[in-house]
Structures are given as C-alpha cells and as structure tokens.
Amino acid sequence: MGAEQEVTVDCPACGRRHHYAPRAYACACGAPVAPPLTAEARPEAVPRRSWTDEWVVVRCAACGRDGHWPQPEVDCPCGTMLRIPVRLPGHPVPRDWPPHDWSPRPSHIPLPRTAAAPRPAFRPLTIRTARDAVTAAGLYLRWLGYHGVVAAEQRPESGIDLRGPEVVAQVDPTTTRTPLRAVECVWLYGMQDAAVGVLFSLAGYADDARARADELGVPLFVMDLTGTPQPVNAPADDLLSSEV
After folding, report:
1. What single-letter DSSP state applies at residue 122?
2. Who is most buried in 24, 55, 103, 229, counting CB within 10 A?
3. Whether the Cβ atoms of residue 35 and residue 58 lie closer than 8 Å to each other
4. Can you tell me the distance from the alpha carbon of 181 to that of 48, in angstroms, rounded to the nearest whole number?
C-alpha cells in the first residue's frame, strides 16, 4: 500500500511541499495495512507531541480487524512536525483512548519461565553487517530461553526483525540513536502478539525513547561490534536475570 497512497502536503509554516506515502504495517492476519489518505489531506503543525495523538485506528481490508497504527507524520526541514489526517470511511478519526484498553501494563508479559539449570556463557557473533546484528540478537534471545525465534529474510514493513512464540524484537544497526517511535512500535506489536517486545541498538537510545521504554516495560539492549548485548534499563535487567 505504497505509491498509490502517495499525497502531496504543504507545510503551513514555510510552504515547502512534501510528497508522502504512509508506511504499511503487518496486520495480525499477515496483510499489509496503511492508514488511508486522500489527495486533499491538509497537514496540521504539531506544537507538542501527545501519546493519545500518536495512534490512529485503521481497519484491515483483508480481515476486517481494527488495529492501532502510528499516526502519519512528516518532519519538515524548517523544524515543523506535520501530522497528516487519516480519512476512515465509516470511522471518525479517534482522538480519545481507547475503544480497547491499550494502557501500559505494570507487569511484564510474558517472561521466560525459570528452571533449575543455569545458563552457559553466551557466545557472541562478531557484527560486520546489519544482518549480523539481527543474527546476534536472535542468538541472544535464544540464549535467554526464547525458543522458536526466527529472523525475517528481509526486513518487513513492521520493522520487526525477529519473532518467536513469546517474543518480538527490533534491531537497529544504524549509527544514530534509536528513536521513541521504535520503542512504541515494538511495544505495540508485542501487545498484539501477547509477547514481550525487545529492542537492540548499536548506537544507544534517545532520551525520550529510554523514558518511554521504562514506562511501557520494554527491555532495551545495546550491542557493540563483538555482538554482546548489554541491558540498559530495568526491564532488560529483569529479562537477563530470569533463568531458563
């Protein structure tokens, strides 16, 4: 749902024109879903970000399921954040949370069950490419005790690189700090799959991403080029201390 959804939007602050196509995410049924836009969509400047305005409800055309997806936005070079309205036939754009309870859960869901045998030492994989980073993260999750973890052959639109029966994970191999949006997306996919969502980053995390991860209980790990993940927040410490 890419090029045919492209719209042209003008920044109300500087007048600069942008061509925008919404990103598609995978529905629970497997079909790609993108927020539907219209050619006359007029963006609005976002003076202050709000959690309740970061998500919109979009219905999957394949299965009819309603899901919560990130609100389409554009960063204008002038510094203005532009929020693009979503047109939902038969559905008003929701601004009040929620038709379902998507509030953060105070408990972790679900961590690996403990067992008597201690873990052997983790054997890392040296990271030379982005694919190596994903492979190293998968090895680490399996070492933690998550069985059946598989990596996508190519990175999907959802950004979820690794999936298992009880875990989903995203790996950021870039040289810039992982942003807030990545934390919120991996948490959302974890909620949809009744799994724990985990993030791995080579460059660390933005301050607001760290704060949101603590609020949502998302474990954050950083990896160096030796391929050894290190926990950077309390949920990650909890995950590491859970014996399998």
Report:
1. P
2. 229
3. yes
4. 15
